[in-house]
Amino acid sequence: MMITVIDGMGGGLGVKIILDLKKRYDERIKILALGTNSTATAAMKKAGADLAATGENPVVVNCKKATLILGPIAIITPDGLMGEITPRMAEAITLSDAKKILLPSDRCNIDVVSTPRILNMTDLIKELVDRVGEELF
Total domain count for the chain? Predict the structure, then answer.
């Protein structure tokens, strides 16, 4: 099963997701890291992604065939991640038939009602990894 992880900026969130996924499901999954920039892509590849690509076109192309997309909620927002998410990227991610499991962020002005006000990213990533298991196994 190929899991797509999308991140930008320094790739730190994507790195944490990939490390936790590999720790829990290593041999049962393959991870495609899609970075909005080369720094994020390199960090996610180093963390254990099986495949990696950078930029708008790889996001658009690979979201069409993705079955599961993971990342911060800002990836579905045009100009999200400090402007790194283009409208075309946000549209491709949003319109993809893939199941999306997204992490909330208090930096993108999207407040999801069921999300605690104080975000503990470690706990949220654990929940994301649990949900991946529910989806796949």
Answer: 1
